[in-house]
UniProtKB/TrEMBL annotation:
<keyword id="KW-0472">Membrane</keyword>
<keyword id="KW-1133">Transmembrane helix</keyword>
<dbReference type="Pfam" id="PF16363">
    <property type="entry name" value="GDP_Man_Dehyd"/>
</dbReference>
<protein>
    <submittedName>
        <fullName>UDP-arabinose 4-epimerase 1-like isoform X1</fullName>
    </submittedName>
</protein>
<keyword id="KW-0812">Transmembrane</keyword>
<dbReference type="InterPro" id="IPR016040">
    <property type="entry name" value="NAD(P)-bd_dom"/>
</dbReference>
<comment type="similarity">
    <text>Belongs to the NAD(P)-dependent epimerase/dehydratase family.</text>
</comment>
<feature type="transmembrane region" description="Helical">
    <location>
        <begin position="33"/>
        <end position="51"/>
    </location>
</feature>
<feature type="transmembrane region" description="Helical">
    <location>
        <begin position="71"/>
        <end position="91"/>
    </location>
</feature>
<dbReference type="InterPro" id="IPR036291">
    <property type="entry name" value="NAD(P)-bd_dom_sf"/>
</dbReference>
<feature type="domain" description="NAD(P)-binding">
    <location>
        <begin position="74"/>
        <end position="172"/>
    </location>
</feature>
Length: 182
């Protein structure tokens, strides 16, 4: 008796009906859920179409194509002391700059300040990559059209270099391989 009353109340509230341990979902509720899913799918499809219509969505980035009168310089180690100052000088002189750095040293905030100073599209991009990673370097060069490379990526502490010379040799080798890419 008590069980049946509860079942009736649940049915009125739009919940599932329990009879003898079986669970029957309310068809109205089911239709509601299906309706919501269809609306959500429609909205997602609409957003995707709108995004694809956006002019820059399919077009290659400005960094990947050469432009008359624009010189694109790759600054390796551009989050570091010398690299960030070189990038600033280049940007002030209207160069297009790509900074690549693995942030093992240096300071990402320096890059962020440069990005705030030169927010226009096609001026400055930052690529987080290790120059010792051949795939990353290949991708960097295949996706960008560089006119010049200024190479400052380095581990550059005299004391440390005497304690861990192999690390310094490795990074130097990496640098030479990067230069060969160009
Ligand atoms: N600081 C000076 O006074 C000075 C003077 C003369 C020459 N230099 C030379 O300039 C170069 C840069 O020196 P710095 O003082 O700017 O050093 P730094 O440590 O401030 O900057 C080096 C940058 O290179 C990055 N880096 C290191 N290895 C990398 C790798 N494998 N891939 C990607 N990024 C990597 C680091 O994260 C760092 O941001 C060095 O070759 C140094 O010998 C420096």
């Amino acid at each position: 008796m008590l069980g049946l009353t509860r079942a009736r109340n649940q049915s009125r509230n739009g919940r599932s009906l329990h009879v003898a341990g079986m669970d029957f979902a309310d068809p109205k509720r089911k239709a509601n859920v299906v309706g919501k899913i269809v609306v959500a799918a429609g909205l997602i499809a609409f957003c995707l179409i709108m995004i694809k219509q956006f002019p820059t969505f399919n077009s290659p980035s400005q960094f990947s194509r050469r432009e008359m009168g624009v010189t694109h310089v790759l600054v390796t180690g551009g989050a570091g002391f010398i690299g960030s100052h070189a990038a600033l000088r280049l940007l002030k002189d209207s160069y297009r700059v790509t900074i690549v750095d693995n942030l093992s040293r240096g300071n990402l905030d320096a890059v962020k300040i440069l990005q705030q100073m030169f927010p226009e599209p096609g001026r400055l991009q930052f690529v987080y990559a290790d120059l010792g990673d051949a795939n990353a370097v290949n991708k960097l060069f295949s996706e960008n059209a560089f006119d010049a490379v200024m190479h400052f990526a380095a581990v550059a502490y005299v004391g440390e270099s005497t304690l861990d010379p192999l690390r310094y040799l490795d990074n130097k080798k990496t640098a030479e391989e990067t230069e060969q890419q160009f």
